[in-house]
Structures are given as C-alpha cells and as structure tokens.
Design brief:
This protein is an alpha/beta fold. It contains five helices and seven strands; from the N terminus they run βββαβαβαβαβα. InterPro entries: Cell_Envelope_Assoc, DUF218, Rossmann-like_a/b/a_fold.
Length: about 160
C-alpha cells in the first residue's frame, strides 16, 4: 500500500535496483516493480526514477510494458549500492523534498538508515521478498546493514 500524501501533491516514485537474470528483472526486482505500480498510478504526472547500474534499462522496459508512460521514467544507471542509489537520485530530484521509495521489505531498514544519514525524506513501499530468496537475501542484508551503519558512523566521526 502506498503511503498517502496528505496535501494532495504528487511525489516521485523511486524504485531501487536489484539482481537481473538474463537481462531481465530477477524475482526480487520483479516484486519491487509490481509493488511500485500502484504507487506510480497514484502519483500521476510525477517522475518515476529507476536506479541501478545495469538494472535501470530492464526496469524501464518492464514498467513501459506494464503501462507506465516512458516520458515519466528517469533512468539513473550509475549506482552500485544503496547509498549511491539515494545520492544519485537526489541529483535528479533536487526540487522534490520527499519521495516514495520502493524496495523489498528486507532492504527497507538500510534504505531508511541511508536516507536518515543524508537528511532525505522518504516514504517506503515494501515489496515482498520471494520465499526462495529469503534465506540468502536476509542473511546478506544483516551484513550489509552492519557495514552501512559502520560507514555512516565513520563518516560522522570524520565530519
């Protein structure tokens, strides 16, 4: 379910990249795209950012195939990490103070952590993680979250 926008304004929808299989969205990424469609439709005219090095083109193609106007889609194809997804998206959405960010539920704590660190206002839409991918993705995420937290602490100490 997309978080409501109280003042009636539109928010951009940012869909974070994930693994591809043979050039097409893998299971977890497809779940993100499926979860993003209601948010995209509830924000008519607002930009849709697909972000991820290698994933952005496949994500754009999937969205267009599923009825999203290609003119709304902005591709960010340089990011190789969650932090870069958000930093590079900020460059593209500098005039937007808040975004809807779509990712899988296992990934939302790390996205929220990086958004907090940068001072970005985000509303999360959490896609389900495919059952067969849960052990791998959740295990990987524990270490990635710890790594991100340590990087943020280090950045704040250095600042």
């Amino acid at each position: 379910m997309t978080p409501p926008v109280a003042d009636g304004s539109r928010l951009p929808v940012v869909i974070l990249g994930c693994r591809l299989r043979d050039g097409r969205p893998g299971r977890a990424l497809e779940q993100r795209l499926v979860a993003a469609l209601p948010a995209v439709r509830q924000q008519p005219g607002a930009p849709v950012v697909v972000t991820g090095c290698g994933e952005a083109i496949a994500m754009r193609d999937w969205l267009v195939y599923n009825g999203v106007d290609a003119d709304r889609i902005i591709m960010e194809d340089r990011a190789t990490s969650t932090n870069e997804n958000l930093e590079n998206t900020r460059e593209l959405l500098a005039d937007w103070p808040e975004w809807i960010v779509v990712t899988n539920e296992f990934h939302t704590p790390r996205v929220k952590l990086w958004a907090w660190h940068h001072g970005y206002r985000v509303r999360m839409v959490a896609a389900r993680t495919p059952l067969v991918r849960i052990p791998h993705l959740w295990t990987r995420e524990v270490f990635a979250l710890l790594h991100s937290a340590l990087r943020i602490i280090w950045r704040r100490i250095r600042a």
